[in-house]
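[job 0412] stage=complex_fold ligand=4'-deoxy-4'-aminopyridoxal-5'-phosphate status=START
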Amino acid sequence: MTDLLDSLFAGRAGGFRPSPVRDFWEVSMEPGIISLAGGNPDLSVLPLDALGEVAARVIRERGLEVLQYGGGTGAPGAREAAARTMAAEGLDVDPDLVQVTAGSQLGLDLVVKLLCDPGDVVLAEGPSYVGAIGLFVGMQVDVAHVPIDGDGLLPEALAETIARVRAAGRRVKALYTIPNFHNPSGVTLAAERRPEVARICRDAGIAIIEDNPYGLLSFDGGTLPSLRSLDPDNVIYLGSFSKVVAPGLRVGWVVAPESLRRPLQLASEATVICASVLSQAVVEEYVLRHDWLDVLAGARGRYQARATAVLDALATGAGPDVTWSVPRGGFFTWVTLPAGTDVHAVLDAAIERRVVFVPGSAFYADGGGAEQLRLAFSLEREEVLAEGVRRLLDAVTEVTT
Ligand code: PMP
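[job 0412] stage=complex_fold status=DONE, emitting C-alpha cells
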C-alpha cells in the first residue's frame, strides 16, 4: 500500500538533508578509529560533581519554578548569564535584550523564518557551517558563498557577490558569518576588515547574522571587536553555551536589533514555547556562581596543545602541494589537497587506515570544496591526533601517486 503521506508533503520536506558531519558519527564510534570529523567540545574538563550539585540543588530548592513552563524571552538568570558571557568577550549588552533559545541553531532557525522567503539569498563564507547550510537549503533559501583567505571574508569579494546576485535579479537578505575561529576553516576575520564588512552590508541594505559560538576559545585569551559592536542596529548576534559550557544543555541566545526583538520572541514561543527552564537554571548557577572562566581557560589550553599537535604533524608529513589554515582558537583546521585530488577517494583510503574526517564539499551549498577537508582537533589527545594526521597523509599519498 502506498503511504498516504507521500502525496501530502510540503514542498520543503525533501530539502532537509542528513548532516554529513553526523553521517560520520557511526564510523567515528568504531573501535580503533581516530576521528578528526566531529567538532564536539571536550567535556572532560567540566567539574561534573559541582554541576551535579547545581542540578540537584536547583530542582530541590527551585523545583516548582524550573520544572514549570518559563517566560518566552528566557529566564532572567540565563539572560544575565548570556550578557556576562558576552561581557567576557568585551561586549556590553543589557540582559533585557537577550532572547534565550534552545541552542543557537534554534536562534538561526527563528531568524531565517523571520527574514527569508523561499528564493531569497543569504551570503555565507565559502566554506560555511554545515548546520547553517542545511537550514538555509531546507528553508528554500539559496546560499551564495563569499571567498575567504587566512584573514576571513574578503571585503571586495563580499561587495562583488552582492552585486552579482542582485544583477541576476535575486534578493539578498543577510550575510551569515562566523567571524571567530570559523567552522570549518578555523580562520578569524581580521580586526581591520570588520568595519569594512559591517559598512558594506549596511550600505547594501542587508543584515548581518553574526554567529559566535567560539569567540571565548582563543588560544591566547584575546578577543576581537564583534560585528555587533560596530553596527548594533544591523547585526543579529547569535551566542551559545554549547562550546563554552555543554551542548547537551541546549541553551543559546540571540541579541537582535530593536525591530526584530518582539517578532523573535513570538516566533520562539510558537516554535518551542520556551527553552528548557531547568537547563537555563543550571547555566545561570554555573555561569553566575562558579569560576567557569577558569575551567574554560583550562579547556583552551588543551585545545591549543591539540591544534599544535595537528599543525606539527601536517608540517612534518605533508607534501609541498598540501596547505592548511593556522587557527588561533576554536576546534578546526582546513586542509587543501593538491589540485585535482578526489577527496572522497582520500576518505575511503583514510577509513581503511582507521581515520575519518569530513570532506570539504559538506561545507558548501554549491559543490565547492572538492579538494578540501576539515580536521577537528577538539576531542582526541595529542598523540592520537598526530597519528591520525600521519594516517591521513598516507591516504593522500596513496590517492595522489
Ligand atoms: N554555529 C556554529 C558555527 C556551530 O559550529 C554550531 C555547533 N557546531 C552551532 C552554531 C550550533 O550550536 P548550538 O549547539 O548552540 O545550537
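The chain is about 45% helix and 15% strand.
[job 0412] exit 0
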